[in-house]
Design goal:
Number of helices: 7
Structural class: mainly alpha
Helix content: over 70%
Order of helices and strands: HHHHHHH
Shape: globular
Number of domains: 2
Strand content: under 5%
Low-confidence stretches: 1-9
Mean pLDDT: 79
Largest sheet: none
């Protein structure tokens, strides 16, 4: 019996989705330099837009080309988290967003990270990213370039500002809710495993409902 294509490609490194994720990661230091060094906001916005497009494209291409991989499952969320964190820190330095926005998002990531450690300590793999988490990341990655455009008192800034704040608020709420859902599911899995070792198959990642 022939193995499914996904099992053949799951350990590959040089797939198109992985290359897109690596390019997105490579763009992080360039973006931070442009934002904090010469303050070349136009180029910084272009890199942020590229990050948003590649974030959408790598997942879609992985499904279309059957190129899902273990490395890709790590690279994609890692690139997202790094972009969000680097952008928020740079925005605080530039006074684009208040520090409490960073505190909320960073606190959520720390909580999820601790939950992941608990999950692995009990012998389970990480949960798959759900659609709410992806929607939150999508909103935030598109909010960031709009927030840059909203800086200043020009006519463009006045038009873009409400849209930028809406994307930021909606993305932040979804980001927080998805984190709470992740922690809740981790707690449920760990509690169930204490009573029934067969309640969860630790050989494959669980999916968030």
């Amino acid at each position: 019996m022939t193995a499914p294509a996904e099992s053949v490609t799951i350990d590959r490194v040089w797939t198109i989705p992985n290359i897109l994720s690596l390019l997105r990661l490579a763009g992080v230091p360039v973006f931070v330099y442009l934002l904090l060094g010469p303050e070349a906001d136009g180029w910084a916005i272009a890199i942020l837009m590229m990050a948003g497009v590649t974030d959408w494209a790598d997942g879609k291409l992985a499904r279309m080309l059957n190129q899902s991989s273990r490395l890709g499952a790590l690279l994609d969320p890692a690139a997202d988290r790094l972009y969000i964190l680097a952008t928020l820190i740079a925005f605080v330095i530039r006074d684009v967003v208040p520090i409490w926005v960073v505190a909320i998002i960073l606190g959520r990531d720390v909580l999820v990270g601790l939950s992941l450690l608990v999950l692995r300590r009990h012998g389970f793999q990480a949960l798959q990213v759900n659609y709410m988490g992806k929607a939150a990341t999508f909103n935030l990655l598109y909010a960031f370039p709009l927030l840059l455009l909203a800086v200043g008192t020009s006519g463009i800034a006045e038009v873009v500002a409400p849209v930028a704040y809406a994307f930021t608020a909606w993305g932040g709420v979804l980001y927080l809710i998805s984190g709470i859902a992740y922690v809740g599911q981790v707690a449920e899995i760990v509690n169930d495993s204490a009573y029934d070792d067969t309640a969860f198959d630790s050989t494959r990642p669980a999916s968030m409902s």
